[in-house]
Amino acid sequence: MTTLIANSTTVGDWLNSLEKSDRDAFAYYAKNATSDIESYLYARFLKPSYAGSIADLTAWTQEKYPKEDLRKVLLIEIDELRMDITNVRNMTTQGMLDYATAATKIASLQKELRSHIQTVRAISDGLDRRGLLLAGADRCLRELANTFQDQPTISSLLEDAGLIIWSTLEREEKS
Question: Does the reported pTM lie above 0.70?
Answer without folding.
Answer: no
